[in-house]
Amino acid sequence: xxxxxxxxxxxxxxxxxxxxxxxxxxxxxxxxxxxxxxxxxxxxxxxxxxxxxxxxxxxxxxxxxxxxxxxxxxxxxxxxxxxxxxxxxx
Length: 90
Prior knowledge:
Blueprint lengths: L7 H16 L8 H16 L11 H14 L3 H13 L2
């Protein structure tokens, strides 16, 4: 399992979830282990279906995309994929 350092906002969310579990506000689903495996398989199947595409952009747009990616500290292709994903999921 990979370890990730949580940001302050994520830590607050995790603490809120833990409090909700302790207070009984959130309850576990029946046969949690089976359901967890089902959801993991669905996520894995969904995330593994990537396809390559070719797209033509103006030099100016590509420059701006690369600049924005540098600001966010991620590869420009990842940023482009994220932008496309956000615009298609509604």
